[in-house]
Amino acid sequence: MATLLLVRHGLTEMTGPVLAGWTPGVHLNERGRAQAAELAARLAPIPLDLIVASPLDRCQETAQAVVAGRDGLQLRTDDRFGEVRYGEWTGRPLEELAKEELWKVVQAHPSAVRFPGGEAMADAQHRAVTAVREWNDGLKPDATFLVCSHGDIIKAIIADALGLHLDQFQRIQADPASLTVIRYTETRPFVVRLNDNGGKVDDLLAKSGQDSDAPVGGGA
Fold first, then answer.
1. In the structure, what pLDDT confidence band is assigned to residue 203 with cuts at 50, 70 and 90?
2. Rg, C-alpha atoms of the chain
């Protein structure tokens, strides 16, 4: 099965202090553009069969940096990789949201959360995981594809790959412009890298004769 490179968008002026959600017009800031360029340069040696991104500007801009210079490869967009729809929480400072009673549920039992005027966290995970599997199914078995999305969505996809209940997904970290790699096989997914922010990617290049059910680098 295919190898998925999960990339979180680079920094924006709202990343950190504010829950941006689906706020329109949130672009990468100067540091975010630099992060995207650095990530693109690091991934340049890896042949990609597909690049898909959330429709939100910060993901589109991050993914475009990776697409640049890859002849014949076009950026595809899938709303299912869009940020969680936080409803009435969208655009509010995290410091303020942390005082809400629902905040405690988000941190401890996210599977039970439906954001006021928004969607359930479980529904957001379902749409994202479904999208990954559908794109995966349409690719050749040894394909490598990249998805650029958002922190909570990426964490939800990773939790699924690890076989974790959604209530455990807050234990996972996905920093801006970080790389997570999941190799899907016929038996199970293997999380090859998690929240990677630098270093070589030689081990992600396809190896002839590699066991399709073994993680990159083998393993006992």
1. confident
2. 17
Q: What is the pTM of this model?
A: 0.91
Best CA proximity match to 183, nearest among 215, 211, 145: 215
Return the structure tokens found at 54.
């959330």
Mean pLDDT value of segment 1-20: 95
- Compute the average pLDDT of residues 79-89: 98
